[in-house]
């Protein structure tokens, strides 16, 4: 079974900083600590309204942190110019609505196909690994393939927020099918949004996934036990889920 990378999303450190202005807590310090705790990458979403991560944070993350940066961005010319300037390891195109509390659903890669073509090709041309943050939906996966994106990240928010076990297993099944469908079409499969200690295992055990991006829960847990311990525990749960699943496959 392939290694499952953990990308730590440090947006939520910046959310706390911005509640008061000033520089504390510093998301770049969070990224440094995440690296020490075993994160394989850092994710940061520069929202158009700059509600958490700032332009200066992106500049410092690319200059001061050795881990690969996954730059989450809306498909706008402003964000494209910033990505091309900083050349992060990866750029994940996400849908954005100013008024939303969080990223409420996946990118409509099928509906926005013509609009996205130029963004995918300019990012790829600059050597940036393009990822599309989409719902677990075959139509969206087909669109990602046709746009030439090498990576998709499946939105796990609905699975994490499910209110009943039946609802949760229905979402899980959709994610499982989409992960297989995408991997069969040559896409590198990632997942993320809303994952917690309770929900990560069933996603981590799917062998198609290469990377999970997790932030909000980790920063929340950090209040009680520290960021280092939250990341190490998440990492251990991911590894256990993988080991248990490969034991089942081998048995
Ligand atoms: C796209 C995504 O899911 C992440 O960027 C993360 O959720 C960021 O947090 P906010 O949605 O609170 O901006
Ligand atoms: N793309 C999803 C992500 O980076 C992390 O989402 P969350 O764990 O902060 O909800």
CATH class: Alpha Beta
Please report the total strand number as a whole number. 8
The value of Rg in angstroms is 17 Å
CATH topology: TIM Barrel
The total count of helices amounts to 11
| Residue share in helix | 40-55%
Mean pLDDT over the full residue set: 96
User: Which class of secondary structure composition applies to the elements?
Assistant: alpha/beta
Order of helices and strands: EHHEHEHEHEHEHHEHEHH
Low-confidence segments:
none
Task: Walk me through this protein's architecture.
The chain is an alpha/beta fold. The protein has one domain: TIM Barrel. Strands 1-2-3-4-5-6-7-8 form an eight-stranded parallel β-barrel, surrounded by seven helices. α2 crosses α11 and α10 packs across α11. The protein is globular and about 50 Å long. The two termini are 14 Å apart. The structure holds 1-deoxy-D-xylulose-5-phosphate (DXP) and the ligand NCC(=O)COP(=O)(O)O. The ligand NCC(=O)COP(=O)(O)O binds next to β8 and α10. The site of 1-deoxy-D-xylulose-5-phosphate has 11 residues, from loops.
Could you list some keywords that capture this structure?
PyrdxlP_synth_PdxJ, 251 residues, EC 2.6.99.2, pyridoxine 5'-phosphate synthase activity, binds 1-deoxy-D-xylulose-5-phosphate, TIM Barrel, Pyridoxine 5'-phosphate synthase
Annotate the secondary structure layout.
Layout: E1 5-9, H1 11-20, H2 27-37, E2 41-45, H3 55-64, E3 69-73, H4 77-86, E4 90-93, H5 113-125, E5 129-134, H6 138-147, E6 151-155, H7 157-161, H8 165-184, E7 188-192, H9 200-204, E8 209-214, H10 216-225, H11 227-250
Parallel strand pairs: 1-2, 1-8, 2-3, 3-4, 4-5, 5-6, 6-7, 7-8
Helix pairs in contact: 2-11, 10-11
The structure holds 1-deoxy-D-xylulose-5-phosphate and the ligand NCC(=O)COP(=O)(O)O.
The ligand NCC(=O)COP(=O)(O)O binds at residues 9, 43, 133, 153, 192-195, 213-217.
